[in-house]
Amino acid sequence: MKKIAIITARGGSKRIPRKNIREFCGKPILAYSIEAALDAGVFDVVMVSTDDEEIGQVARQYGAQVPFYRSDATANDYATTNDVLLEVLEEYGKRGMEFDIACCIYPTAPFVTGKKLGESMDILLGSDADTLIPVTAFSYPPQRAMFIREGRLVFGYPEYMDSRSQDLEPHYHDVGQFYVFRTESFRKNRKLMKGNILPYVLTDLEVQDIDNETDWEIAEMKYRLMREKEALDAGEHNAP
Prior knowledge:
There is one protein chain. The protein is of the alpha/beta class. Helix content is 33%, strand content 20%. Helix 1 (29-40) packs across helix 4 (114-125). The longest helix has 26 residues, at 213-238. It is globular. It starts with a strand and ends with a helix. The model has no long low-confidence stretch (mean pLDDT 95).
């Protein structure tokens, strides 16, 4: 069974220029995704899909393959992750290489680790699911949401107005880090978010959208906290 890690790193970031290779806690943020994929030890190929030569150079520096660059169709602002993944699998097919399982990893996902990728792979392979997606719970129950209409607050779901938070069903959202999927199902569905999907639940400390400068600073703080916690846990585990 052949497995590939596909790291999607376009060069045209608008909100944070050169975002995918900007330094994050001492090295290009792209490096974290590459190192996690390599550390997992489960992939036959770890590659970066990009349209940018500088990104390609950084990717190779940290051990990823860049066997081809993106087409114009998947390098523009309107191309989706699904489009990019389908193109990568098609290009490898032209080279006589087919994969049974793939993992899409975003380039700005420093919280991804080899352990998480390995665990996710084992969970998917031990199931009949098409895809596994990391998620985290909303920090506040969406059932208690309010809207502003004509300058006034309105409860979106008044039936939950007096409900205790702990009595409401948790809601989860995609954390935008990685996706593990069976390529046969993906080619059929042509979407990651379709079919039989498994969750991989993460804590809030392991999750951060990075869309602006404030997000970046918060992500660096969370990353340092996560590493400190891991070191502390390891020390307690190894204590006599």
